[in-house]
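I would like you to help me understand the sequence and structure tokens below and explain how sequence relates to structure.
___
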Amino acid sequence: MQLERTVEAIRTARLELVPLTAPFIDALLRGDLPATERQIGADVSHWLAIESAHLVQLYLAQLTADAAGLEALGRAMVLVPPTGRRRVIGSIGFHGPPDDRGRLELGCTIEPAYRRQGYAAEAMTALFDWAGTRYGITRFLVLVPSRVPSNPERSSRVPLEIGFNEAESRSDQIDGLGLALEAERPPRS
């Protein structure tokens, strides 16, 4: 039996970025929403069960990162309203350990009903600050796929608004051709 580590959630004004665990991913992949909700301590929508690929990708990347001593790189985005129930609205995290240039690649997906409300920028900023404080990492990369289901210009807007610059065109096996955006963020004092 594998023991789960206890790593604290990253808290923002409206969100908790909760580390992914094997029992959470297992329940999600089995389609057992009640068990998934018990594991994460928040409501989980059918959208998340259907669109679970990013969460699974983050969890698998975490297994690789564990070998490099980097914990809790993948997280569920839990909306914590002042009143009402906690709800998972998406996922965010790094796609593995830093690349050969010392950059962590970030990915984020949000349930359609919660898009364009500032949650992505809030979560990205918190995760960058956490990575800088915890691991001393200040260089980040975001790949915006050319074939984003909605509008690719809109999808690249959030990283650009929080300080990313165009770095390169790039292709990967998951997203295909896309635009890589890069940022260097000094650690917060």
Observations:
- Confidence is low (pLDDT under 50) at residues 147-154.
